[in-house]
Amino acid sequence: METLTPSQLKEKYDDDWITPYHEIITITDDDEQKVELIEYHPCPIGSDWMITQYTRTSPLIIDAHRDGNKHTYIVKRGHVDLELKPSFQAAGISDVVIDDDEIKIVHAGLAGAGVGAAFCRGKASGVKRVEIYEKGGGSKVGRAAVVTPKYKKVIIGLDDTDIPTQGATWTLANNIANEIQNEKGYKYLEHITCQLFPENPNKTKNCVSIILTFAVKPEDEEDLIQTIKTKLENKTLSDKTAFVVYDKLDVPSDVQKYAIEAKQSMKSLDEAQKIAEDNGIRVEYVTGKEGLIGALAALGLYNNPDEYAKVYGKSSKN
Question: Which pTM was predicted?
Answer without folding.
Answer: 0.91
